[in-house]
Specification:
6 helices; mainly alpha
């Protein structure tokens, strides 16, 4: 084979190598984790250096995961107890947003090699540990009796009870989120917590309007 014939084949191989390298760089850019947004969008990002067991970061991730879990449970309950589109839309938003945020926080605990539960009381990282009462593990959380009432209610009664319970739930959640935003050591917790506080305060105002529209006190 002449050198003239070999030249095109060499160019083909060189072009193939360049293509493979380019594809690899694109894939690296696509799968690179993005920063966690306050709304819960994006994939889990972990900053260098895992926080300590006693840190606000770990405590908040654990406690807010539990707090969120009950909010999602209540939203699923009311979704099936009313046909009101506004309440069902709010329930849908809570289910999606808080389930997503809960998954992020549990993912960070895994990345930090921290257990998802602690033998100590909830909210110990805030300086005032909580004591469970009738199923309410933390401030703002509904009791077992209140959840049973919500499951038994229908229509407007279910809507009003849900809005009252979720307002109390959000107020306590926003307080916890503000504490974490102020004291956490990792960017991911500070950013997520600050976004949670803003979003829950906005929903508290929305629920006050919804209660007023139903002739109930906020």
């Amino acid at each position: 084979m002449t050198s003239a014939a070999r030249a095109p084949r060499s160019l083909v191989w060189a072009g193939a190598v360049v293509f493979v390298v380019a594809v690899g760089l694109v894939l690296l850019m696509v799968v690179r984790p993005s920063a966690a947004s306050p709304s819960g969008a994006g994939t889990t990002r972990v900053s260098a250096g895992a926080p300590a067991e006693s840190s606000a970061d770990v405590g908040f991730a654990r406690d807010m995961s539990v707090h969120h879990q009950q909010a999602v449970e209540m939203a699923f309950i009311v979704r099936d107890r009313t046909d009101d589109e506004d309440v069902r839309r709010l329930a849908y938003d809570i289910i999606n947003t808080q389930a997503n945020q809960r998954g992020m926080m549990l993912g960070w605990l895994d990345a930090w090699d921290m257990p998802k539960s602690s033998e100590g009381p909830p909210m110990e990282w805030m300086g005032h540990p909580a004591t469970a009462t009738d199923g309410a593990l933390m401030p703002g959380m509904a009791t077992d009796a209140q959840l049973d009432r919500l499951r038994a209610a229908e229509g407007r009664a279910a809507e009003v009870l849900f809005l009252h319970l979720m307002t109390v739930h959000h107020r306590a959640g926003a307080d916890m989120a503000r504490a974490a935003a102020a004291s956490a050591s990792t960017d991911e917790i500070r950013e997520l917590a600050a976004g949670m506080a803003r979003a829950q305060e906005s929903e508290i105002a929305l629920m006050a309007d919804m209660l007023e529209a139903r002739g109930a006190n906020p």
